[in-house]
Write a structure and sequence with these properties.
Layout (H helix, E strand, L loop, with lengths): L9 H4 L5 E5 L6 H11 L3 E3 L2 E3 L13 E3 L2 H9 L3 E7 L2 E6 H9 L3 E5 L2 H10 L4 E7 L3 H11 L4 H14 L8 E4 L3 H16 L8 H10 L3
Bound molecules: guanosine-5'-monophosphate (5GP).
Length: 220
């Protein structure tokens, strides 16, 4: 193969995908950053978890979650179809394995908007494919202000989220990268640079050996 041949672009087709694990305390901007990254990169999709909790108003099956019965969730776990799962409050949540492995094999990437426990489970199941990014708020008062500004939760719920956030941030050291979201555009630039650089790691680019061999032997 001629490496300069426009019809052969192995770097576009022979890459193993990666799993981008994004965690943060609630209100630090992780969801907005994740949504923008998924919108900007066509080979990155958001992982949709399965859950036994009922949909909230406005939620759609297959968009926020796959809403399943207890029996169906049991079956998914027994058949080994869950990459990881956890019980949170009265319900169970889990990451279906199949869409993740299919995406990786096709050279597509999957973003997880997930707490530290879920991130830890996925990382231990697939250590070489996982890249962890932790998003911190610039200050605690800023985080509290953002949660209050959403104006969609009761004070009690906000206080619970803040308390949970204090626990969540103690796990920042388990991640490969940490972003302080003081300014959204700068935080987003950092996130997209991390994502783009991780895609270039040699271990994810199975074509390099053959490509370099062709380069070495090409021409006179
Ligand atoms: P909610 O019911 O508010 O959407 O989510 C409740 C909790 O479930 C959140 O803390 C969220 O991080 C967690 N969660 C959602 N999906 C998953 C998942 O696939 N695996 C695990 N381990 N936790 C999840």
């Amino acid at each position: 193969m001629n490496p300069a041949d426009e019809h052969h672009k192995p770097w576009e087709t022979q890459r193993r995908g990666l799993l981008l694990l994004m965690s943060s305390p609630s209100g630090a901007g992780k969801t907005s950053l994740s949504r923008r990254l998924v919108a900007d990169y066509s080979d990155l999709t958001l992982s949709i978890s399965a859950t036994t909790r009922p949909p909230r108003p406005g939620e759609e099956d297959g968009r926020e979650y796959h809403f399943v019965t207890e029996v169906e969730f049991d079956r998914l776990v027994t058949d080994g179809e869950m990459l990881e799962w956890a019980a949170v409050h009265d319900h169970r949540y889990g990451t279906p394995r199949k869409p993740v492995s299919e995406a990786l094999d096709m050279g597509h990437d999957v973003l997880f908007d997930i707490d530290w426990q879920g991130a830890r489970s996925i990382r231990s199941a697939m250590p070489h494919d996982s890249v962890g990014v932790f998003v911190l708020p610039p200050s605690w008062s800023d985080l509290s202000r953002r949660l209050h500004a959403r104006a969609q939760d009761h004070e009690e719920v906000i206080q619970r989220r803040l308390a949970r956030g204090r626990e969540e941030i103690t796990h920042w050291g388990e991640y490969d990268y940490v972003i302080v979201n003081k300014n959204f555009d700068r935080a987003y630039a950092d996130l997209s640079h991390i994502y783009r650089a991780e895609r270039l790691k040699p271990g994810r680019n199975t074509w390099i050996n053959d490509f370099v061999e062709d380069l070495r032997t090409e021409g006179p």
